[in-house]
Design a protein that fits this description.
This protein is mainly alpha-helical and about 425 residues long. It is built from 17 helices and 7 strands. The protein has 3 domains: about 150 residues, no CATH class; about 110 residues, Cytochrome Bc1 Complex, Chain D, domain 2 (Orthogonal Bundle); about 110 residues, Cytochrome Bc1 Complex, Chain D, domain 2 (Orthogonal Bundle), CATH 1.10.760. A 3-stranded antiparallel sheet has the order 1-2-3, with no helix packed on it. Strand 4 and strand 5 form a beta hairpin. GO terms for molecular function: electron transfer activity; heme binding; iron ion binding; oxidoreductase activity, acting on CH-OH group of donors.
């Protein structure tokens, strides 16, 4: 038996090595200039690149808290270990020796200047959709930044994920390079929105379910837990979660541009996206994204398998709601327009996945302070004031009151959420 297992292990290693060798050969023969470069020059090219960097929210992963912009170092926790954002400034330790072809190869093929395969925490499965012209503009902007000599922090990943051979196999399974091509029969506005959502916006990186190897489907926007953060990115294909079918375009634009809209607000990781990225996009680009997102094919909502709250749990939750919540959200969950959201009929309250509700009650909920909504109202944290059982009780009451008909939240749900939050 031991000899058989050894032979199996050897065969797997040989398979990994063969896949790595083949992919290495293929990548060396991939053209670096597969599309037309930018026609912009000088300051116009840099300005375009700055805008695109905002659209891709590049600084979020490539800037350490308190560090120089784009100088790298930010730790990115994953189920496989910790990755660190690289230095994108034009320093010797950053992009100083890179060419526009090198940068295009990284975005389009997921391969560094020295030939190393890049980890898909850098979302090249999405960025491969970016045109060569936009890649050149991004590179010009990054080259215009002050050079910051900061060595890249080595990744800390478990074996065999830390090997290039394993990464080569992952790419063979889940990565296909390809610039976005307009879909026939769709308007220019829809195609622009699809390009932004699928490419630089990399919305599927959060709003889709990852498999055991961390892969997602580019067009799967059916929702998923964000690894290591304890937040759920709701489905953009379900009206019961965050689907936008039936919404007015202007309402979607307002939500993406300010973080708040009538009956809706962004919290958690999406609030950061609005703060650092979408609020800076042009009105035509926000509208294009809205047009595309509103037409995402709809899917049925996942059934809520949790049983309804019992009478004792509802009674306890009602008392806690009256004591801690009613002053802002109203005795009937009606909220206060422009300040505190209604809880009655709120789909964020009744989704089967309750992770975000637990997050908000325990750690607070804070929409972004944007140019269009500079002083949003937030919710204070109750992690030190309410026990896990009390959080479960008040949420169970809210999910079953005022016409809401969602299942109860268990104390175990809250404890697990508290334990997975970083």
């Amino acid at each position: 038996m031991t000899r058989r297992l050894s032979l199996v292990a050897l065969a797997l290693l040989l398979l990994l090595a063969a896949a790595f060798a083949w992919l290495s050969w293929r990548s060396q023969h991939e053209p670096a200039t597969a599309a037309a470069p930018s026609t912009l020059q000088g300051a116009a090219l840099v300005e375009r690149g700055a805008y695109l960097a905002r659209a891709g929210n590049c600084m979020a992963c490539h800037t350490e808290r308190g560090g120089a912009p784009y100088a790298g170092g930010r730790a990115i926790d994953t189920p496989f270990g910790t990755l660190h954002g690289s230095n994108l400034t034009p320093a010797a330790t950053g992009l100083g020796a890179w060419t526009a072809d090198d940068f295009w190869r990284a975005l389009h093929h997921g391969r560094s200047r020295d030939g190393r395969l890049l980890y898909p925490a850098f979302p090249y499965p999405n960025y491969t959709r970016v045109t060569r012209a936009d890649a050149d503009a991004l590179f010009a902007y990054l080259r215009s930044l002050p050079a910051v000599e900061r060595a890249n922090t080595p990744h800390d990943l478990s074996w065999p994920v830390s090997t290039q051979a394993a990464l080569a196999v992952w790419r063979a399974l889940y990565f296909r390079p390809g610039v976005y091509a307009d879909e026939a029969g769709r308007s220019a506005e829809w195609n622009r929105g699809a390009y932004l959502v699928q490419g630089l916006g990399h919305c599927s990186a959060c709003h889709s379910t990852r498999n055991a190897l961390g892969a997602t489907e580019l067009m799967d926007l059916s929702g998923g837990m964000i690894p290591m953060q304890g937040w759920y990115a709701p489905s953009l294909a379900s009206r019961a979660e965050a689907g936008l079918a039936g919404w007015e375009i202007d309402r979607i634009v307002q939500l993406l541009g300010t973080g708040s809209a009538p009956g809706a607000s962004t919290l958690g990781p999406m609030a950061e996206v609005v703060l650092h990225s979408t609020q800076h996009l042009s009105a035509p680009d926000l509208r294009a994204m809205a047009v595309f997102l509103r037409e995402v094919p709809e899917t049925d909502a996942s059934p809520d398998s949790a049983p309804p709250a019992g009478a004792a749990l509802r009674e306890r939750g009602a008392r806690l709601y009256a004591e801690h919540c009613a002053a802002c959200h109203g005795e009937q969950g009606q909220g206060i327009a422009g300040a505190y959201p209604p809880l009655a009929g709120n789909r964020a309250v009744t989704m089967p996945v309750t992770a975000n509700l637990v997050q908000v009650v325990m750690y607070g909920g804070f929409p972004p302070a944007t140019q269009g909504h500079p002083r949003p109202f937030g919710m204070p944290p109750f992690a030190l004031e309410l026990s896990d059982a009390e959080v479960a009780a008040v949420l169970s009451f809210i999910r079953g009151a005022w016409g809401n008909s969602a299942g109860a939240v268990s104390e175990l749900d809250v404890a697990q959420q508290r334990g997975t939050t970083r």
